[in-house]
Specification:
Largest sheet of chain B: 7 strands, mixed
Number of strands of chain B: 25
Number of helices of chain A: 13
Helix content of chain A: over 70%
Number of strands of chain A: 2
Radius of gyration of chain B: 26 Å
Helix content of chain B: 25-40%
Oligomer: heterodimer
Chain lengths: 314, 546
């Protein structure tokens, strides 16, 4: 187990290094750079001599390798540099933007899971009858709703027409309701689809028939025997969905005017703010790796069959 | 019994006085400003670096204008320069020496005095830059040499060459005065609003990066521009800036009472706002008009006849009636009719498709197989990048492209990421056409726009672009140099007229409309002011009962 753990962490570190290096190369390969965009723009109207001075001051004129080593060295000690566009330390931006995004993504995921489970259980209730096919088609509807449209609709209806929740200056919890819904709906769809399909699959397994034969009620079978087995693949997908969650956050944060990693990324991409982008790429990679690692480590806890390890399989 | 009577009388009396005061306050509405309240201001983009010379970016100007004061105040109605932090000033005959006498008792919000030494340090930084701290020079200060502190309230500036635009330059948004503590910080840290310490009527209270900025009133503020009616502290207790990028959310929030004032309202949203009794503020920017400019270094547009043909082939009246509103006046010169030195050149800017076609024929561009004009095997296909900060710029360029297509000329309108856009835009071979606009209420603005060492919109050899092969217009540059160094005002305005004529005769630019900065406000928001180029000032703003 320890060896497994160490090798997984080693893999994670390699992924992080690769993410850093590849993003560095790609960002350098793009036409122009942040110094150019910021200072050679009409906004400043600087002379060529002044521009050369600024390039030298930002070490944007050094060789690629020296810039790479310089940046890597700074990252290792946790110094992400300064955002050229915003004029603040990247670490300050991250400190301001990570907590709101975690909050949004976390609650978004919880609500998405809630929606998915509710849909799956509803569809499998006894006596649902013809409604079942309608419930089963809800996820396909959800997955095809564009996030920005959903966000704007929710704002227009619940905030501007019905005036139930303010978008501007809301309370800390009040302000989360609409954005969380916006993030949750598209994420809930694939979760619900997988859950529905798995429940159907598990219901055909022999042990379900056995449980039924022993006289277990439908609800008991569903909850005690089926749900647990149907959840495992969902967990795997959940790790992958994290990326989608971040993408959804970009749009949601822009529509709702929230600060967070999403809107920070959007701004940084717009101005090719390399220092910010580099930090975001590495952080996202770290988050991805951590989440997938913890899911892998969770498996044996949820599924006793995996706990034993390969040697003991008979 | 008598007690009852007394009570009754008292009740009656108080009832009368209550109704009286109610009446009085009702009559007051619209007349006497009330103090208090926080203005909720929705901004489209977060501010970037708040180093004062970067105030040209609208979100930055909207903040800096509330927290900093300037040496002088440009009256937005008369465009005259009036006293502010400087009580009086003298200029020598050839505009190379300026002496300012400062107002007594002005302090920055950190308690340090705004005296001659502070002013000198500000202008040394803006005029010369600070390499060590990476602070760049200000665009509005030309030929700066040095400062001299004569006494604690008198400061003198020396220039290497005559700089008649400097006095106006002390009044612009990029010339806000900040504390020595702020100037001692590296450029890289000036995006943190809490570190920008000015002497203005508001002080930065707190900031959530990229989301919110809260200003609070400075109670002891007593040095507003001397000629303003309002003196003393600002009426508002504070201003809360909330970044709301989505257009429909800003407007919806305003109309549903969640916000008081918003920036950036597109022309197509104006009706919706006004029909509900809300107010549109279209503040003129008084500078170079929203235009399309050419890069004559590109052989496709090096012939003046081609450029003239495209000028006469552009129907700006149609662009305005299709995309804009009455708040976007049709351009009559390269600068706005509210700008200094403006000359009405509308007879030279007529839309005349027949003339345009004739000019292209004369220049040797004949219609080819697919309707596109050709010459020596080259098709007349041009490219321009849209400029997102300008109102509906993509739609404007696409309409221009449609109008040019009728002449047999193709204009490709590209969006592009800011990196490739910036790089391509420096290369006349790749972008022979470009949208352009800049606001500033002094004839110097024309030089800022066209001079190769400034914004260089025409892309001349010797400018910031190393891709230019040969194009230089010495006559234009000579006129621009005279414009920025002629100390005699009537002569200076006459040169401004010559430049306008020359640019239009050469058809270097096709002016389209006079660009406003469009804001919208709730009906109870009173007394919103705008500085000369359209940045809001909330010093005299107050909130009526609502």
């Amino acid at each position: 187990m320890t060896r497994y753990f160490i090798s997984r962490i080693g893999q994670a570190l390699i992924v992080l290094w690769a993410a850093f290096t590849i993003s560095f190369i790609l960002l350098q390969a793009m036409p122009g750079d942040a110094v150019l965009i910021k200072f050679q723009n009409p906004e400043y109207g600087l002379s060529p001599e002044q521009l050369a001075g600024i390039r030298a001051a930002y070490a944007a004129d050094g060789s690629l390798l020296s810039q790479y080593l310089h940046t890597a060295g700074r990252f290792l000690i946790g110094d992400f540099g300064y955002s050229l566009q915003a004029g603040v330390a990247v670490s300050a931006q991250l400190a301001a933007d990570i907590p709101p995004t975690i909050r949004l993504a976390g609650f978004g995921f919880l609500v998405a899971a809630l929606i998915a489970v509710t849909l799956a259980l509803l569809a499998n209730l006894q006596g649902v009858g013809r409604l079942r096919s309608i419930i089963q088609s809800v996820p396909s509807l959800f997955v095809s709703v564009p996030t920005f449209w959903l966000g704007i609709m929710l704002i227009q209806i619940f905030s501007f027409r019905l005036r139930l929740v303010p978008v501007i200056n809301p309370g800390p919890w009040e302000g989360l309701i609409l954005p969380v819904l916006t993030v949750a709906v598209p994420i809930s769809a694939p979760l619900a689809q997988i859950l529905l399909r798995n429940i159907d699959k598990v219901l055909t397994r022999p042990f379900v028939a056995v449980a039924r034969a022993k006289g277990a009620s439908h609800g008991w079978v569903l909850w005690r025997h089926v749900a647990k087995n149907a959840f495992l693949p969902v967990l795997t997908v959940a790790g992958v969905l994290f990326g989608e969650l971040l993408a959804g956050a970009v749009i949601t944060e822009t529509v709702f005017g929230l600060n967070g990693i999403g809107s920070l990324t959007e701004q940084a991409v717009n101005f090719q703010d390399v220092a910010v982008l580099q930090a975001i790429v590495v952080l996202s990679a770290a988050a991805f790796v951590t989440i997938n690692l913890s899911i892998d480590l969770l498996y044996p806890i949820l599924d006793p069959r995996l706990k034993a390890g390969p040697e003991t399989v008979r | 019994m008598s007690l009852m009577a007394t009570a009754k009388t008292l009740l009656l009396a108080s009832a009368i006085s209550v109704s009286f005061s109610a009446f009085a306050s009702a009559a007051d509405v619209g007349a006497k400003p009330v103090q208090g309240g926080t203005l909720i201001y929705l901004e489209q983009q977060p501010h970037t670096n708040l180093y004062p010379p970067a105030g040209g970016f609208y979100p930055n100007g909207g903040v800096l204008n509330q927290i900093t004061d300037k040496l002088t105040y440009q009256n937005p109605k008369t465009l005259e320069i009036e006293p502010w932090v400087a009580e009086s000033w003298t200029v020598n005959d050839n505009a190379t020496e300026y002496t300012f006498k400062l107002r007594k008792g002005v302090t920055f919000s950190d308690g340090t005095p705004l005296d001659a030494a502070a002013v000198a340090k500000n202008y040394d930084t803006f005029g010369l830059g600070n390499k060590e701290l990476k602070q760049p020079v200000s665009e509005v200060i030309n030929n700066y040499d040095r400062s001299e502190v004569i006494d604690p309230l008198t400061v003198k500036f020396y220039f290497k060459k005559p700089s008649p635009g400097f006095l106006q330059g002390t009044s612009v948004i990029g010339s806000g005065l900040v504390s020595l503590k702020t100037l001692a910080l590296p450029f890289d840290q000036l995006g943190d609003a809490t570190k920008i310490i000015g002497s203005g009527p508001f002080v930065v209270d707190s900031e959530t990066l990229g989301k919110e900025l809260t200003l609070k009133v400075r109670e002891d503020y007593a040095w507003g521009p001397a000629k303003l009616e309002h003196q003393g502290r600002a009426y508002l207790d504070g201003i809360k800036y909330v970044i709301t990028g989505e257009d429909s959310v800003r407007i919806g929030a305003l109309l549903s009472g969640q916000a008081d004032f918003i920036r950036q309202v597109q022309a197509y949203d104006e009706e919706q706002v006004e029909s509900q009794g809300y107010k549109i503020y279209a503040a003129p920017t008084r500078g170079v008009n929203n235009s399309v400019v050419f890069r004559p270094d590109n052989p496709l547009v090096s012939d003046v006849r081609v450029r003239q043909a495209l000028l006469h082939g552009t129907n700006s009246a149609e662009i305005i009636s299709t995309l804009f509103s009455a708040n976007y006046p049709q351009a009559k010169s390269i600068i706005a009719s509210t700008a200094q030195g403006y000359l009405d050149l509308s007879p030279k800017l007529t839309y005349d498709a027949a003339k345009a076609a004739k000019l292209l024929d004369e220049a040797g561009w004949k219609p080819g197989a697919n309707g596109i004009r050709e010459k020596d095997g080259n098709a007349l296909v041009l490219t321009a990048y849209e400029s997102p900060p300008q109102p509906q710029n993509k739609a404007t360029l696409q309409l221009v492209a449609q109008q040019w297509a009728k002449l047999g000329v193709t204009l490709n309108v590209l969006a592009g990421d800011s990196g490739s856009k910036t790089v391509d835009d420096l290369d006349p071979a790749k972008t022979p056409v470009s949208p352009a606009m800049v606001g500033r209420a002094d004839p110097d603005v024309i030089k800022s726009q066209y001079y190769p060492k400034n914004r260089d919109v025409l892309r001349q050899k010797g400018g910031p672009s190393d891709k230019v092969k040969s194009f230089v217009d010495d006559k234009l540059n000579g006129l621009l140099e005279q414009l920025s160094s002629e100390p005699d005002r009537p002569k200076r305005l006459q040169i401004a007229g010559e430049v306008q004529n020359y640019v239009i005769d050469q058809a270097y630019a096709i002016p389209i409309f006079e660009e406003p900065q469009a804001f919208a406000g709730a009906p109870y928001v009173q007394g919103v002011g705008f500085e000369a180029v359209g940045r809001p000032s909330f010093y005299s703003t107050w909130l009526a009962e609502h």
